[in-house]
Protein: Ribosomal RNA small subunit methyltransferase I
Amino acid sequence: MCSDTPTRDDAENADAPAHRPDPRPLAAGLYFVSTPIGAARDITLRALDILAKADVLAAEDTRTLKHLMEIHGVPLGDRHVFAYHDHNGEAMRPKLLRALADGKSIAYASEAGTPLIADPGFQLGRAAIADGHTVLSAPGASAVLAALTVSGLPSDRFLFAGFAPTQAGARKRMLAEVKNIPATLIFYESPKRIHRILTELAEHWGSDRQAVVCRELTKRYEEVSRGTLGDLATAFDGRAVKGEIVLLVARAVSEKPDEQTIEDRLRLHLADKSVKDAAAIVAADLALPRRDVYQLALKLAQEDEE
Structure:
């Protein structure tokens, strides 16, 4: 997810202590480094180690990475930060692959968050893997997981759907495809379009479906709005919104299946799974209370033993 700055506020980041890197050398390979989505302190020590020791630095936004390194006292030295983004990937990938072939270590950072999540790093990682190079991850901040954590929506199963298409026809088809997926659905959205998509979702998915709008996560003006799609569409109507937005929508709630359907599903899974696992799977698939499904699964298992 893109961000215009890695800082929460200047006062918080001004006194960030200089990083003391791990003295051990960095092995050759491509390192995908997660960077903060807001507060600059949301970076791992390992990420700072990699940024301090990598032979080659590449970033979706070179200014953002340089500023982050400056905040944490990570010296750039005589290294150049290469820009790698959607517009120059075809030209830049061969240069980075040659560096890997020469035994170099490369750190790639997206503008904010975890690389490859709505980010141009995918093709670079795929090419490096195809050429037999080591590809490693330095995990850290992610807008998707941060939003899911604070949303209050079920987290046992979720789908990241990225940005909805801007064209009306393509957007309608895409939303129809994911509407009934039994998982919490997560989108990135522009502040200029958040009211539009909330209105469309309320109209086509039902105004009573639960949703959450997360804005400016980990930043100074962080805001989390929870409610039904209808209520949120009303709340954002005519409102001037700024910042990075993650939209989460609860899974669709279907009519409760009859007992025979539940029993058939349970028997299918009980054939090769424990009572506990079979009940958990069926309860999640059918959006039923796990305790009730477990009791039924236990009954079926006991009947089969008799």
Observations:
- Strands lie at 29-33, 56-59, 81-83, 105-109, 135-138, 158-163, 184-189, 210-215, 223-228, 245-249.
- The two ends are 56 Å apart (CA to CA).
